[in-house]
Design a protein that fits this description.
Helix content is about 40%, strand content about 20%. It is α/β, with parallel strands linked by helices. It has 2 domains: about 250 residues, Aldolase class I (TIM Barrel, Alpha-Beta Barrel), CATH 3.20.20.70; about 70 residues, Arc Repressor Mutant, subunit A, CATH 1.10.10.920. Strands 7-8-6-5-4-3-2-1-9 form a 9-stranded mixed β-sheet, sandwiched between helices. The chain has a 3-stranded antiparallel β-sheet with strand order 10-11-12, with no helix packed on it. Helix 1 runs parallel beside helix 2 and helix 1 packs across helix 10.
Length: about 375
């Protein structure tokens, strides 16, 4: 079973923290829809006949398109690939969602909604240049529930300059009161090519310190786990039975295909990524020219990829899977490398699985880096 991701490379407004690829010009919106459908058809053999079980519309802003236009792309997937869609997710901005549009999304087959709320505090939303206001953030979840969505994820950002611990806890309490099934929560990161990145270089923007960041993260974990959520990945929390099936495919080393400008794909042995430029993408599709780059992964790179994805999750790395895929050499290296961490409790080896306890997720980047294998 594999996942298919469709990147919708348009937004109406530039958020100050965002470094995903998109364009604020909608001039090529219709042409892009045709090109996306063409890429879906052209790449039908990429996964070797594997069944598509999850379909994810991300971006950018998928809700730039009407439900009928999104359905056109979903139908093209089902026309070209063997499929058994268990989860069809649409990312959405709160201000795009109306009762009518939400009902249409349900009718076209969407059974999961991922809403980019980010904060319920007006000041935070204004600082991040979000399109919606605090009242829209509060109203959108009940509206989606009334339209029949019973699998809703919301995004929240913490570590916003000026945000107090109490405000962050209030944000979490508000999120819990909405009875959503999934919460993805990310620390505000300052990427170089973003508005915040430019402001930081000019001394106009300052990130919060590490100690404050850790306190906010601890509040996040405590509030949500007490509220009935399982902390199943570094930045993701779900009610039992409501893990993101699509994202889980990334973290469990499953195959996936990415459609659209800047989208990435993985077939188990190689990575492939599309050009991050709308005009170049459209021109290449129209002329049947290459619009991607591909990297064949060495065995060591595949091993490191497994470490990087699996140890982000609560279920960790299956020792049988590791041994079956990589043999004695890399498995032996892994067992030796984990010894310092299993001795101090930052890794747990239960006989079948090696995992990072959730209380040490904050250290996961450093732990994973120490387990990577570097070719001599």
């Amino acid at each position: 079973m594999a996942g298919l991701y469709i990147h919708i490379p348009f937004c109406k407004k530039l958020c100050s923290y965002c470094d995903f690829y998109f364009s604020v010009s909608l001039a090529n919106k219709d042409e892009m829809l045709t090109a996306l459908a063409k890429e879906i058809a052209d790449r039908k053999d990429y996964l070797g006949g594997e069944t598509i079980s999850t379909l994810y519309f991300g971006g950018g802003t998928p809700t730039i398109y009407s439900s009928a236009e999104l359905k056109r792309l979903a139908d093209k997937v089902m026309e070209c690939y063997p499929w058994q869609i268990e989860e069809l997710t649409v990312e959405a901005n709160p201000d795009d969602l109306t009762p009518k549009y939400l009902r249409e999304l349900r009718a076209m087959g969407a059974n999961r909604l991922s809403i980019g709320i980010q904060s319920f505090i007006e000041r935070d939303l204004a600082l991040m240049n979000r399109r919606h206001d605090a009242q829209m953030a509060l109203d959108v979840v009940p509206m989606a529930q009334a339209a029949g969505f019973d699998n809703i994820s919301i995004d929240l950002i913490y570590g916003i300059p000026g945000q107090t611990e109490q405000e962050w806890m209030d944000n979490l309490d508000t999120a819990l009161s909405l009875n959503v099934q999934h919460i993805s929560s990310y620390h505000l990161s300052i990427e170089p090519k973003t508005v915040f990145g430019n402001q930081m270089r000019r001394g106009l923007f300052h990130p919060i310190d590490d100690e404050a960041s850790e306190r906010l993260y601890r509040h996040l974990e405590d509030k949500l786990t007490r509220g009935g959520f399982e902390h199943y990945e570094v930045s993701n929390f779900a009610k039992p039975g409501f893990y993101s099936k699509h994202n889980t495919s990334y973290w469990t080393y499953a195959k996936y295909i990415g459609i659209g400008p800047s989208a990435h794909s993985f077939d188990g042995a190689s990575r492939q990524w599309n050009v991050a430029n709308n005009k170049k993408y459209l021109n290449a599709l129209a002329k049947n020219l290459p619009y991607w780059e591909r990297e064949q992964m060495t065995t060591a790179e595949q091993y490191n990829e497994l470490i990087l994805t699996s140890l982000r999750t609560a279920w960790g790395i299956s020792k049988k899977k590791l041994e079956r895929r990589f043999g004695e050499r890399l498995t032996g290296y892994f067992y030796k490398a984990i010894e310092p961490y299993t001795k101090c409790g930052k890794l747990i080896d239960d006989g079948d699985v090696v995992r990072i306890p959730t209380e040490h997720f904050l250290l996961s980047d450093g732990i994973m880096a120490d387990l990577f294998f570097v070719e001599p």
